[in-house]
Specification:
Blueprint (H helix, E strand, L loop, with lengths): L1 H19 L3 E7 L2 E4 L7 E3 L3 E6 L1 H11 L4 H16 L3 H9 L5 H20 L1 H14 L3 H4 L4 H22 L6 E9 L5 E3 L24 H34 L5 H15 L1 H4 L4 H29 L9 H27 L4 H42 L17 E5 L11 E10 L9 E13 L2 E15 L2 H4 L8 E13 L4 H7 L2 E7 L12 E8 L4 E8 L4 E8 L16
Parallel strand pairs: 3-9
Antiparallel strand pairs: 1-2, 1-4, 4-7, 5-6, 5-8, 8-9, 10-11, 10-15, 11-12, 12-13, 13-14, 14-15
Helix pairs in contact: 2-3, 3-8, 4-5, 5-6, 6-8, 9-14, 10-12, 10-14, 12-13, 13-14
Length: 582
């Protein structure tokens, strides 16, 4: 199942990468060797390595523009700014060389290399190309050309002025501001925890922990540390929870009264029961007024039920609060519809003056209740937005830094040894996040994930493991040893020290095949006298040590035997054991 998940994820990520390109690039460094982790290859990294996370601002802007068109004005300006900054990154070196009356051969070589790069950037970017052509045409009509100055300094200087102009425009835009963040999360059997990315957050590194290649046991201290980190995560989550509770209490305190609706219902009942009007009010109008009383009763029930449900609404559980609000709104509209029917019927009689006080009362009450319900809709929308934000991003704390594009670091670093306890097949999730201001006052920001890189941590290369299990041993020359002739196999407990190899290219090998070879130590009892014997030899295993086979030498009775093992990931009751001779 896990392998299928990885395959599907890889296909989807590859399609996404082909459509938009990568925002996040990951390079792994381990023991002096570096390699880039391509998006279309197995996302497996050495569990003790250091990762370099690089952000492509160009790809970031492309995806923001495609998914958030409301930000197009800002994105277009930032795209131009990035193009200019990229092209002009070596402008000071060019100008200093040009100002030198007699540049050296080395300086001339540097100049042409820089200018080649600059012209390539210009040629590949329509915006830069257009600007360059305009400035070149303009240069030959200026006093600068007449005075014998060079073209390059003129163009570089004017492009630099364009940077200042664009930066000024960006500052002038007050709407549609956005920030971005890069976050990482380690997923393991205990649930997981945030991971510190140098340059992108202020989280502290967890306990410095190297996964040893020749040790596999878990310590009590490690488990206690994971529990402590879970408590820290819970405390961070409480911040959002407390805000939710505060806003909910405020909304409940301001829950509008519908007493005027109840008063209108009672007055309508009295109107129908008025003896003086009883004979002159048509039956169909009386029926409508009775209908009004029914829908008002429904409205009261739904309204009070909404208040009860809202008081019990938990931030961590998505309930149908929105649907209940819509039901209350529709119920109020039903009252208004029936009142409109009554107005139409009354207009066809001579009873307008008799009905006028009742209709005036309803109009006033309807407007008041409608205003109260609108406040409820807005307040609940705020709470629902906070709840959704809490559930989707409950692990994102204040330690995550929000960047604008101009101060976004291009690179961050993750030292996997500083992420605490981990084991083979634990996952590391790296995300590029877009953060937008809330559209509702006092609500938290809106957070969107633009790209994810999901990496699997693995001891790559040689490592050892200890495997304990039951083997089925078949000794050679049973007749010479006077062993039970009716037995082909004897059961024996064993322990093995295995040499294994982790792959950086195959999930299937790491998580399914997982071959091992090593030494086996067993305690058979071939002569069934109740005294354990000692056997030692070689063993090979596969499929996470579920299947094993090997050959041992029984040092106690001076005999060889071969064996196999089937170590299931659960215990079987009634497993047969050797019968001891009397």
């Amino acid at each position: 199942m896990k392998i299928l998940k990885y395959t599907i994820t890889l296909i989807l990520v590859s399609l996404f990468a082909n459509m938009y390109g990568q925002i996040l690039s990951v390079t792994e460094t381990y023991r002096g060797d570096s390699r880039k982790i391509p998006i279309d290859a197995a996302q497996i990294v050495e569990i003790n390595s250091t990762l370099e996370v690089e952000v492509s601002k160009v790809k970031l802007l492309e995806i923001i523009k495609s998914q958030f068109p409301q930000l197009n004005e800002t994105v277009d300006l930032e795209s131009k700014l990035i193009s200019l900054q990229q092209a002009l990154q070596n402008q000071s070196a060019v100008i200093s060389i040009l100002e030198n009356q007699m540049p050296t051969v080395e300086e001339q070589k540097t100049f042409f290399e820089i200018m080649d790069g600059f012209l390539n950037d210009v040629q590949s970017d329509p915006f830069l190309s257009s600007l360059y052509n305009e400035l070149a045409a303009e240069f030959f009509t200026t006093q600068a050309f007449a005075e014998g100055n060079l073209l390059e300094p003129y163009i570089l200087s004017n492009l630099n002025n364009d940077i200042l102009s664009i930066e000024s425009e960006l500052k002038a835009i007050e709407t549609d501001k956005y920030k971005v963040s890069v976050v990482a999360y380690k997923k393991d059997e205990s649930g997981g925890d945030r991971v510190h990315i140098q340059n992108y957050d202020t989280y502290s590194n967890r306990d410095y922990f190297t996964v040893e290649r020749w040790v596999t046991s878990l310590s009590v201290e490690d488990q206690q540390q994971l529990e402590a980190l879970a408590e820290i995560a819970r405390e961070n989550n409480e911040r959002e929870f407390q805000l939710f509770q505060t806003l909910k209490a405020k909304l409940l305190n301001e829950f509008g009264s519908i007493s005027c609706v109840v008063s209108f219902k009672n007055n309508s009942i009295q109107f129908v029961q008025n003896i003086e009007l009883n004979d002159v009010v048509p039956a169909e109008i009386k029926a409508k007024i009775v209908e009004i009383q029914v829908v008002i009763n429904q409205f009261e029930t739904l309204y009070h039920l909404l208040k009860t449900e809202l008081s019990q609404w938990n931030i961590a559980a998505l309930l149908t609060i929105k649907d209940q609000v819509l039901s209350v709104v529709e119920s109020l509209k039903n009252i208004d519809t029936i009142i409109s029917d009554v107005k139409t019927l009354v207009s066809q009689t001579n009873l307008a003056s008799d009905f006028a006080p009742l209709l005036t009362e309803f109009n006033s009450c309807y407007g008041e209740v409608q205003t109260n319900i609108k406040k409820l809709e807005n307040g609940i929308a705020l709470l629902f937005g906070l709840q959704t934000n809490y559930i989707a991003n409950k692990s994102i704390g204040d330690e995550v830094i929000s960047f604008s594009l101009d101060n976004l670091p291009e690179k961050g670093f993750i030292n996997l040894k500083g992420t605490g306890k981990r084991q083979n097949s634990d996952e590391l999730l790296i995300e590029m996040i877009l953060r937008l201001p809330s559209t509702v006052e006092n609500a938290p920001e809106q957070i969107f994930t633009l790209e994810q890189r999901e990496l699997t941590m693995q001891l790559i290369g040689a490592r050892s493991e200890v495997a304990v299990g039951l083997i089925f041993a078949n000794p050679f020359n049973k007749g010479d040893l006077n062993l039970q002739s009716d037995r082909d196999f004897f059961y024996a407990p064993s322990a093995s020290v295995l040499l294994k190899f982790g792959s950086s290219k195959s999930y299937f090998y790491n998580e399914f095949l997982d071959f091992g070879v090593g030494l086996n130590f067993a305690s058979p009892d071939f002569n069934t006298d109740g005294s354990p014997e000692f056997g030692v030899g070689v063993i090979t295993t596969a499929f996470k040590d579920i299947i094993s086979v090997g050959i041992n030498y029984n040092t106690t009775i001076d005999n060889f035997y071969w064996f196999f093992g089937i170590n299931l990931p659960f215990n079987l009751p009634g497993l047969p054991v050797n019968t001891i001779k009397n």
